[in-house]
Amino acid sequence: MTPSELIAHKTATKRLQAQPGFAKAKSVKLPKPFDKMRGPRLYASGELAVSDTHRVFIFWRDGELRTDSAFFAWLMCELQDGRLSPLLEFHYHPSHKGAHIKTPCKTELDYTNRQLPQAPELNVKLVADIDPRTDGGRSVLIARFCEACGIALGQENGLWN
Predict the structure, then answer these.
(1) pLDDT tens profile 82-118
(2) Could you state, in order of their start, the residue ranges of all structural domains in the chain?
(3) Which of 10, 85, 141, 146 makes a 20 to 30 Å CA pair with 124?
(4) How much is the pTM?
(5) Residues linked to residue 58 through DSSP beta bridges, in sequence order
């Protein structure tokens, strides 16, 4: 994907209408490549439409300690045949690395119905000590993810609070 193609996706009109709810990942039906993401500590938002062609998937992993938890989010583009192509992958690991994103920019690999292994990785600045196990921590991470993807938050007349 070229930088201009990625910018076109970022600047496309997208909106996350409401704060997503989460359920145990094993009880949420998910398309490829998320259909195999399971585990007793993993929670998923399900598929969230943010435009006619853009989808968001958000997960968080619980842990006894904050450092055992994690947060993951993806912006995907639905192709004409219904398959999903990843545009941005956002990870937050309190135990190491902090927040980082991957994009398929300047790669020739076909990531259709996949995540972004071997994609270029960039660090993302965040306030320290965010806890993905809390509603407040997830709200901060969702807002940062949406900012990175060019996704507006809430209803057009105001935020979702």
Answers:
(1) 889 888 989 888 877 778 787 767 677 665 666 666 6
(2) 3-153
(3) 85
(4) 0.85
(5) 73
